[in-house]
Amino acid sequence: MMQGYIEGGAADRALPKRYRVVPRGSGWAVAIDNAATRPMPDRSAAERLAARLQAEADRLDRDQHRRTQ
Questions:
Q1: Mind giving me the DSSP string for 5-43?
Q2: What element of type H or E holds 56?
Q3: pTM for the full predicted model
Q4: 66 phi/psi in degrees, rounded to 5
Q5: I need a labelling partner for 68 at 20 to 30 A (CA). Which of 6, 26, 38, 52 fits?
Q6: Which helix (H) or strand (E) holds 1?
Q7: What is the pLDDT of residues 4-14, one digit of tens each?
Q8: What backbone torsions phi and psi does residue 15 show, to the nearest 5 degrees?
C-alpha cells in the first residue's frame, strides 16, 4: 500500500492548516502546528504577517490541487 492512498482510490484531501496569532513571551507570535515566529511587540503586525503567510499557503494549495487534477 502506498502512503496517501487507500486501496481502491485516493485518500481525501487533508484539511488546510491555519496560521494563528498567539501570545508569546513579551509580545505576539504567528504559529502553525508546534512552530512559531519570534515574538513581535505589536499584535497588528503579527496579524498582518499571519494573513500574508496564510494567503501564500492557500495559493500554493490551490496550485497544487490544480496540478493533480
A1: EETTEEPPPPPPP--EEEEETTEEEEEETTEEPPPBS-H
A2: helix 43-68
A3: 0.71
A4: -65, -40
A5: 52
A6: none
A7: 655 555 555 66
A8: -65, 140
Residue 50, SS3? helix
User: Do residues 36 and 24 make contact, with C-beta atoms less than 8 angstroms apart?
Assistant: yes
Residue with cell 501570545: 23
Distances (CA, A) of 56 to 1, 22, 51, 63: 32, 20, 9, 11
Closest listed residue to residue 49, CA positions, set 40, 58, 62: 40
